[in-house]
Specification:
- By secondary structure, the protein is mainly alpha-helical.
- The protein has five helices and two strands.
- A two-stranded antiparallel ribbon has the order 1-2.
- Helix 1 crosses helix 3.
- The longest helix is centred in the last third of the chain and has 45 residues.
- The N and C termini lie far apart (61 Å).
């Protein structure tokens, strides 16, 4: 498939695909005229990149993990990297969950004040 179709199917921009290529994360075949051609597997690969980027992993880390993605096997060093990233994400999730609970508390307090004001003004 061509770059535009991959971008559409994977939900990314053509620019993002070119960046992945620059970072050696995605290596398309080329036609005789130099156009990029991607395999069907590239769609899922790009989706994995997007997931990892959203989780805060950088290009270098993703590049280190590519063999794991491709083969499903890890070296001890890759496994350590995966565990470190998992620990970082777990910590971030705890922080985000705490922030979510604080927001819930603020919303509940604001709702309670609104109810009290409504009762006090006779609007209920």
């Amino acid at each position: 498939m061509r770059i535009g179709e991959l971008a559409h199917r994977a939900g990314v921009s053509v620019r993002a695909l070119r960046y992945y290529e620059e970072q050696k994360l995605l290596i398309p075949e080329r036609t005789a005229s130099g156009q990029r051609v991607y395999t069907e597997e590239a769609v899922e690969r790009v989706r994995i990149f997007q997931l990892f980027y959203a989780a805060g992993l950088g290009s270098r880390t993703i590049a280190k993990l590519l063999p794991c993605i491709d083969t499903g096997h890890t070296t001890p060093t890759q496994r350590d990297e995966l565990l470190a990233e998992r620990g970082r994400l777990a910590s971030h999730i705890v922080t985000m969950t705490n922030a979510l609970h604080r927001l819930d508390d603020l919303i509940a307090a604001a709702d309670q004040r609104t109810e009290v004001q409504a009762v006090g003004s006779g609007l209920t």
